Amino acid sequence: MKALLLENVHPEAERILNEKGIEVETRKGALDTEELIDALDGVELLGIRSKTQVTREVFDAHPELLSVGAFCIGTNQIDLTAATEHAVTCFNAPYSNTRSVVELAIAEIISMARHLTDKNQAMHEGVWDKSATGAHEVRGRTLGIVGYGNIGSQLSVLAETLGMRVYYYDIVDRLPLGNAQRCDTLEELLERVETVSLHVDGRAGNDSLFGREQFERMRPRSLFLNLCRGMVVDYNALRDALVSGHIAGASVDVFPNEPKSAGDPFSSVLQGLPNVILTPHIGGSTQEAQVDIGRFVAGKLSAFVTSGSTTLSVNMPQVQLNSAVNGTRMLHLHRNVPGVLATVNSVLGSHGINIDRQQLSTRGDTGYLVTDAANGVTREVIEQILALPETIRLSTIN
């Protein structure tokens, strides 16, 4: 079995996959669609980060692909509908870089409140600007978090330890941590807080979530952060709000169009503005986070191909399998319609196969049946199950 890892996935991932006997090819940068299609010849496992787009065209060209691992939080760069239709199991790392992103957000809030970037630039230019004008503590100030998931909720906790008052808005009814207060609408949040930090996912509904209207609703001289997705914000509108002085500072880590590789040229309408921090999508780029992500996603990929476990898959029914394979394990992805389990067991029974262990899980239109049999699983049995009209993919582990 062969894996392809792109975009500088941490070497820990390669080590874990190698230990399972998987051959690994690594590449530093992202690939466009045609490059990816060419690179996937003979590959069963694909590892990416945030820039490589795995489209329906890619899945159509490579029916042999078994699994895609996103070595990051988001999965909007993968066409999950197409992946499921092609029986490709996808994983991500929903927790591993949470702390790194939160620490960057805290650092940037403090830096903007104290105008540290402006002070730093002045010092490098030989200007001694020792002044308290425009510099503020964050203690006692209000923070509004848009998106109260893994990152937003942890930011809430750390911000409170600094003495900030936290409000949040999320389309899901999430339990507040600490003393955080939920806002019923985004508009309510924007009118109550002095700092806004975005932590939403990359679903289509969040495209252009934050634009001119939202910036105008923010309180005068507020601070703004986007460390989630570039497509969420209208950066021309942000520039206008910064130039007018309505927004006092901004920190941006993500952009609608990002360079494919380190060292490539970058351009943004936000360049050159005072009290604006621009970083190259490094929210989760700490050594600790990258090691954890490499270990976590590679572990999911290796567990899937060695045992069939789909625990924490983002698109497939979840079956947790920690037991060793004795005999033959059949992994049957099928359309979720009534009678599939009975039909498969009828096939096995007609061949005198005794079932040692069996698990079935469903998710939407897809079902996943895992069956362990000590003996008797012949090619004829496999072909009969493959021929069932409900079968999407059948693989075996011995």
List the helices and strands and how they pair.
Layout: E1 2-5, H1 11-19, E2 23-26, H2 33-39, E3 45-48, H3 56-61, E4 67-70, H4 80-85, E5 89-91, H5 98-114, H6 116-124, E6 142-146, H7 150-161, E7 165-169, E8 181-182, H8 186-192, E9 195-198, H9 212-217, E10 222-226, H10 235-244, E11 247-252, E12 276-278, H11 287-307, E13 328-335, H12 340-350, E14 355-363, E15 366-373, H13 379-386, E16 391-397
Parallel strand pairs: 1-2, 1-3, 3-4, 4-5, 6-7, 6-9, 7-8, 9-10, 10-11, 11-12
Antiparallel strand pairs: 13-15, 13-16, 14-15
Family: Belongs to the D-isomer specific 2-hydroxyacid dehydrogenase family.
EC number: 1.1.1.399, 1.1.1.95
Protein name: D-3-phosphoglycerate dehydrogenase
